[in-house]
Amino acid sequence: MTQAIEIAHLNYQYPDTPRPALRDVSLSVASGEWVAIIGHNGSGKSTLAKNINGLLAPGSGTVTVGGELLTEESVWDIRAKVGIVFQNPDNQFVGATVADDVAFGLENRGMPRPEMIKRVDSALAAVNMTEFATREPARLSGGQKQRVAIAGIVAQTPDIIILDEATSMLDPAGRQEILSLIRELRAARPLTVVSITHDIDEAALADRIVLLNDGEIVETGTPAEIFRHGEELIDLGLDVPYAGRLKAALAQRGVAVPAAYLDAEGLVDYLWTLHSTM
Amino acid sequence: MNKLIIGRYLPGNSWVHQLDPRTKLLASFYFIAIVFMANTWLSYLVMFAGVMVMIAASRIRIGFFLRGVRPMIWLILFTVGLQIFFTTGGHVYWQWGWLHVTHYGLINGAYIFCRFVLIIFVSTLLTLTTQPLSLADAVESLLRPLRYLHVPVTELALVLQIALRFVPTLMDQTTKIMNAQRARGVDFGTGGLFQQMKAVVPLLIPLFVDSFGIAEDLATAMDARGYRGGDGRSKFRVLAYHSRDWVAGGSMIVLTALLLLTRR
């Protein structure tokens, strides 16, 4: 399988800071994979995202996206391949209306208008926002604004979508809305997803989790492997999902629970099976 | 806070609403210019008839236009007063020291009053029937020739568009900060003028800081979506003249002809 993103020995330090934000980060993401990057505040998650599409220029090391090395010349090509949904739904809405905002990225690429109209329509349909095309952002909910942001990216038909804490400012319903939308989009066409998140439930949806601490990759593994470290995750400033905490509490009281990670539903299934055999 | 929103666009589907914003903008400016050519009762009557036809075509109640005059009423009365008391000539009706009310003074005062009302009606019609965004588009389109003089018209238009887009966002932010400061005991809208001005400071500073945060986020988002200046961008929203725009232009010519016939 081809690699969507290939990062080798990446270092990055913000100007006027004593410590580097990223230290010798190497990571490859396969095409079509969903990777979650987790870590506490200041662990370098967002810095990593900004290095992938050249919003920040790597201090040393290389970033290759879709086989193309990130350089000053290729940066615009790469930005067309990588869409980022940012944290604040309001502060990334450029257009005066929903349709205008979706078209913004296409206008930047100088796309002819008839093609643009087609793309905007189909992108809005893909995120179920067609009826809101002429609405102003002030009249949308946070979840709807993030859906528009995703439509703006879908319209550019990128290979990779980065969710930079895109659900952190939404209410639980909005969060679910966005995550199920991402799953739908992935079902429709191959899309590599890199989600940067605090939310363990969001991370649990990924194929693979990368744990970042103080700018270094501490560990990579499937959600089940990562969540097995209960206590250590808390030490790294992360919250273990509720199901994980419950499992640890049960284990402490002498109830036999499986070592692998279970989501809430899995744990409920396990518990009632356990109970009915007793 | 809602009163602060720029313009007071009334959504509608009338003939005037459907005109190209460029036509409306140019026609409004043109009308305001020719108002100053009217100098007889009959010519003012022609102009009023013209405005009434436009208002009828917009299907907006006259009350909205009268309400547009209200905030200006003191300015109007002051100007009319100056005209009445300081214009000399004709029969003197009343005199007290250097103040006098004359025949010409009264007529000039009435003309000035009509001019104000006409201008306010037309500009109100423009803002009631045109979205601020369309007006921004119209300005961009009309100023496009300035690009040859290296004026960054497309960039300025984007700045204007983003400014309009963020008016409601900043308004929300203001309400939020006001509530937060109220919860901490700041009293808005009471006390003397100085007290009220002081109360605005803890509102303005966080708002100012916030806007810089927003600007930075927005710039990052625009960068990530491949924005690299106005050159080479295509446009999603385009303006197009239709037959009704020619009708509107023709009507302006007819109005001008009638005005020239009726003025002295």
TrEMBL record, chain A:
Record key words, sorted: ATP-binding, Cell membrane, Membrane, Nucleotide-binding, Translocase, Transport
Subunit structure: Forms a stable energy-coupling factor (ECF) transporter complex probably composed of 2 membrane-embedded substrate-binding proteins (S component), 2 ATP-binding proteins (A component) and 2 transmembrane proteins (T component). This complex interacts with a number of substrate-specific components, including FolT and ThiT for 5-formyltetrahydrofolate and thiamine respectively.
Taxonomic lineage from the root: Bacteria, Bacillati, Bacillota, Bacilli, Lactobacillales
Entry-linked SUPFAM superfamilies: P-loop containing nucleoside triphosphate hydrolases (SSF52540)
GO CC annotation, single: ATP-binding cassette (ABC) transporter complex
Organism listed in the record: Lacticaseibacillus nasuensis JCM 17158
Topological relation to the membrane, as annotated: Peripheral membrane protein
Cellular compartment(s): Cell membrane
Entry GO MF terms: ATP binding; ATP hydrolysis activity; ATPase-coupled transmembrane transporter activity
Family affiliation: Belongs to the ABC transporter superfamily.
Entry keyword NADP: no
Annotated ABC transporter domain residues: 5-239
The UniProt record lists the keyword Transport: yes
Name this protein carries in UniProt: Cobalt transporter ATP-binding subunit
From TrEMBL, chain B:
Location(s), subcellular: Cell membrane
Pfam families: CbiQ (PF02361)
Keyword set, alphabetical order: Cell membrane, Membrane, Transmembrane, Transmembrane helix, Transport
InterPro entries registered for this protein in UniProt: ABC/ECF_trnsptr_transmembrane, EcfT
Membrane-spanning segments: 29-60, 72-94, 106-128
First-listed, main subcellular location of the protein, grouped into a coarse class: membrane
GO cellular component entries: plasma membrane
Membrane topology: Multi-pass membrane protein
GO molecular function, one term: transmembrane transporter activity
Free-text function comment from the UniProt entry: Transmembrane (T) component of an energy-coupling factor (ECF) ABC-transporter complex. Unlike classic ABC transporters this ECF transporter provides the energy necessary to transport a number of different substrates.
Recorded family membership: Belongs to the energy-coupling factor EcfT family.
Record text on subunit structure and interactions: Forms a stable energy-coupling factor (ECF) transporter complex composed of 2 membrane-embedded substrate-binding proteins (S component), 2 ATP-binding proteins (A component) and 2 transmembrane proteins (T component).
Name by which UniProt lists this protein: Energy-coupling factor transporter transmembrane protein EcfT
Organism whose genome encodes this protein: Lacticaseibacillus nasuensis JCM 17158
Gene: ecfT
